[in-house]
Amino acid sequence: MNFINQQDQNQAQSFDGNATIVKNFMSNVFSWMGIAMTMTAVTAYFFANDESLMRLLVNETGGMSILGWVVMLAPLGLVLWLSRGFQRMSYGTLVIVFSVFSVLMGMSLSFILLAYTGASIAQTFVTTAVMFGVMAVVGFTTKTDLTKFGAILFMALIGIIIASVINMFLGSGMMDYIISFIGVLIFTGLIAYDVQKLKKIGSGLMYQNQDANKLAIMGALSLYLDFINLFLFLLRFMGNRR
Question: How far is the C-alpha of 203 from the C-alpha of 26, rounded, in Å?
Fold first, then answer.
C-alpha cells in the first residue's frame, strides 16, 4: 500500500511539474506575441499619422517607393528565414529578427489604417481578439488530436494563396468574397491547431534552456501570423473604407 501511495505521489508530482513547464512555455509564447503585436500597432499608428514617414513608402506619383516594396516583401522573406534557420540562430539574433519583422509589418499595415475608418478597424480587431481567444482555449483544452486537420488547413491555405494570385488578374468581387470567407475559416482553425501543437511542444521541454526560449519565439510568430491574417480577412467583411 505504501508503495502504491508513493507511486501515485510521484506521478502527481510529475504531472504537476509537466503542467508547470507547459504553462511557463505558453506564457512565454503569448508574451512574445503580445510584444510583437504592440510593436506592430505602434509602428502602424506612427506611420499612418505622420505624412513625412508615409512619404518614405510612396513616391510622388502615389506608387510604391523602393522602401515601400522592401517593406511589403521583406516580412515574407524574414518568415522564411526564421522558419528555415532559427535552429542555427542564437537567441539574441532570433529576438532581433523577430523584432524587425514586427516593425516592418507595422509599416506595411499602416496603409490599412489609411484605407479604413478607425471605428471599423477597432471593431474588427476586437472581433478578431475574441475569436482568437475562444479558439486558443479550444486548442489548449480539447482532447481531440488536431494533427490531421492541420494538414487539411495547410493545403487549403495553399489553395487560397493560388486563388488570390489568380484573382489579382481577374479582379472578381465574388471570388474575392469567397476567398475571404474561406480565409476566415482556415485561420480560425489554424489558431486551435497551432495552440495545441505548441502545448505538445511545451509538454516535451525541459524549460529554462535556450532552445525552449527560441521555440517560444517561433510559436509566437505562428500565432501572430494567425491573428494578423484572420484580422485582414475579417476586415474585408467588416471594414468601412474612408
Answer: 10
Rounded Cα distance, 187 and 194, in Å? 10
91 burial via Cβ count (<10 Å: 0-12, 13-18, 19+)? middle
Number of H helices, E strands in the chain: 8, 0
Ordered alpha helix ranges (H), 116-204: 118-141, 147-170, 173-203
Sign for the CA dihedral angle at 160, 165, 166, 171 comes to positive
Amino acid at 66: I
Residue 5 falls in which region: left (phi positive, over 0), alpha (psi -120 to 50) or beta = alpha
Residue 122: pLDDT over 90: yes
- Sign of the CA dihedral with 113 first, then 235, 120, and 40 last: negative
By C-alpha distance, which of 111, 121, 85, 99 is closest to 35? Answer: 99
**How long is the chain?**
242
> Where does the pLDDT of residue 177 fall: very low under 50, low under 70, confident under 90, or very high at 90 and above?
confident
Give me the amino acid identity at 111.
Answer: F
Residue % of the chain over a pLDDT of 90:
43
What's the pLDDT band for 210 if we cut at 50, 70, 90? low
- The full set of domain ranges for the chain reads 2-238
Helix (H, G, I), strand (E, B), or coil: what is residue 86? coil
209: confidence class by pLDDT, cuts 50, 70, 90 = low
Q: If we measure between CA atoms, which residue out of 140, 152, 115, 236 comes closest to residue 197?
A: 140
Q: What is the mean pLDDT of the chain?
A: 85
pTM, 2 dp: 0.87
